[in-house]
């Protein structure tokens, strides 16, 4: 950031370049950038899931979905919702103050993510990995429901249609692999 801009801006809130100047990680661009690794990890997990489903079956497929689409996505989501909570609040339209809701979502994400990563690293087997996929899919599908409610009930709700579609697709695919890992 330009030192002149930073020194000229005193007080709380965003500086001229949109970053928070009071020690908070408040630049909304960081959480927008974190969407890319989330999408890449989810895509990699689903791709590998289909790859191994066609060659080795559900037990191998669910491992990769659990590792990337649950574990990897959950870690990145935690950073977005908790570490960069102020920026995420702005991205979500909550203003400049994070909500307890954001932290709860972040804590859920990291709990499931770390458990999913451990389930793969310590080879807890396809049933444990499948259950973690099903739990995360249930969360994604509920998020789709929440966003569809925002589409219907908020003044500028149409901006959430993309979220509804993404959460339905990802939730449905992760659920598919969770079920495949149980068989």
Outline of the structure:
The chain is 76% helix and 0% strand. It is mostly helical and 183 residues long.
Give a description of the structure:
The chain is mainly alpha-helical. It has helices at 3-8, 28-55, 58-83, 85-91, 100-121, 126-153, 161-182.
Give the arrangement of secondary structure elements.
Layout: H1 3-8, H2 28-55, H3 58-83, H4 85-91, H5 100-121, H6 126-153, H7 161-182
Helix pairs in contact: 2-3, 2-4, 2-7, 3-4, 3-5, 3-6, 3-7, 5-6, 6-7
Considering DSSP H and I runs of 4 or more, what fraction of the residues is helical? over 70%
Total beta strand runs: 0
Rg (CA only): 18 Å
Q: Describe the biggest sheet?
A: none
Straight-line N-to-C gap: 53 Å
Average pLDDT, rounded to a whole number, is: 86
Keywords for this structure?
single chain, 183 residues, mainly alpha, 0% strand, disordered N terminus
